[in-house]
Amino acid sequence: MTTDTPARLLQLLSLLQTPREWPGGELADRLRVSRRTVRRDIDRLRELGYPVQATKGSEGGYRLVAGKAMPPLVLDDEEAVAIAVGLRAGAGHALEGVDEASVRALAKLEQVLPARLRHRVSTLQAATTPLTSGDGASIAPETLTVIASTVAGQERLRFGYRAKDGIESRRLTEPYRLVSTGRRWYLVAYDLDRGDWRTFRVDRVSDPFATGARFTPRELPTGSAAEYLRRSIHRRLDSNEYTYDVTFAAPAEWVAARLPAWLGRPEDIGDDDGGDGGGSCRLRTSTSDPLEWVAMRLALLGCEFTVREPVALTECVRELGGRLARAGAPDLQG
Fold first, then answer.
1. Rounded Cα–Cα distance for residues 320 and 241 (Å)
2. pLDDT of residue 333
3. Which string of DSSP letters, residue by residue, matches 220-240?
4. Number of other residues whose CB lies within 10 A of the CB of residue 210
5. Beta strands in the chain (DSSP E)
6. Cα–Cα distance for residue pair 303/319, rounded to 1 Å
7. Is 32 exposed, middle or buried (0-12, 13-18, 19+ CB in 10 A)?
8. What is the rounded distance in angstroms from the CA atom of residue 8 to the CA atom of residue 14?
């Protein structure tokens, strides 16, 4: 039980800022206090200026009304818009360091933004095209906020999902955690139709829908969502991972600035190691990404390179080179 009233009020406020209605009994259980204490705390929040709406009934519920007041962070309109736009941009492109906490913050902030500010955020987002490396799939921030809200509210989530082979399906899940790898977002959830835990790439999720049905979280086999995702990815990688060995006719610092960080960092090599004396480097790494994608990334670097391993990548680079050469050559058969 939280006996510190200010701390309990902050915890209550954090729950209410999740965009859903909270039954009084559920709030009491979460805070480990009586329903009477919850009612008193709700009255205190109202006195502080928070527009908490109550619904009648045998259970009764509470919801923080959107658009009536900002939290007492004393954010002006410009600051609120700037924070929302920044969080939406970071969440949508899975920037490294922008994790689930930021997505939860975005869901809470957009819940209390007045309508006029929400419109400004959406307008600015729609009018802005970010310059990204293209290494990670773009995700609609609304998709992340819906998922984050169901995770926080322990609410079943239904969505469409496109598998790697292109097969479409509908899933009903108990969402457990969102995990960001820097390049992509993943949802770790219990799949009710399949009766087992699953990981879902969020960029393949469509039309996420919070069903309103509450659930008690199951115990994750690994204890940690990040560890479960890591094992899941490694199981898939064991069958199709390649080890790459590539040399570049450019310094390591120059190449590293143009390659995605998750591919690893090349190392400078000297003449004794096969360097050309003009500043060259070598990259040894492993990845399960498609060979065609890796070949294209290497071709886009803008410097000479040599593939030492694997042979499959060498063949892929040759095919790509031939295709590009034919596309740029005049039609000699006409």
1. 21
2. 47
3. PTTS-HHHHHHHHHHHHHHHH
4. 18
5. 22-23, 52-55, 61-64, 155-162, 168-180, 185-191, 196-201, 205-214, 242-248, 267-269, 280-287, 305-309
6. 18
7. exposed
8. 10
Rounded CA-CA distance 12/293 in Å is 48
**Torsion angle of the four alpha carbons 224, 230, 231, 237, in this order, in degrees rounded to the nearest 10:** 170
Helices 24-31 and 35-47: crossing angle in degrees, nearest 10, is 100
- The helix (H) or strand (E) run that includes residue 195 is none
Q: What is the pLDDT of residue 301?
A: 87
Report residues of the chain scoring pLDDT below 50. 1, 70, 73-74, 95-97, 129, 131-135, 333-334
209 within 8 A of 215, measured Cβ to Cβ: no
Which residue bears the tokens 């060259």? 280
- Amino acid identity, residue 86? G
CA 12, chain centre distance (Å): 26
Residue type, 295: A
Question: Any bridge partners for residue 284, and if so which?
Answer: 245
Length of the chain: 334
Residues 6+ away with beta carbon under 8 Å from 78: none
List, as one string, the DSSP characters of 270-326. Answer: -GGGT--SS-EEEEEEEE-S-HHHHHHHHHTTSS-EEEEE-HHHHHHHHHHHHHHHH
Q: b/e for 111-149, b at 16 or more Cβ within 10 A? A: bbbeeebbebbbeebeeeeeeeeebbeebbbbbbbbbbb
For residue 161, give the nearest of 121, 201, 105 by alpha carbon.
Answer: 201
- Whether a cis peptide bond, with omega within 30° of 0, leads into 310 is yes
* Residue appearing with tokens 């003449």: 271
> What is the token pair recorded at 284?
């040894």
Tokens of 219: 């115990």
pTM over 0.85: no
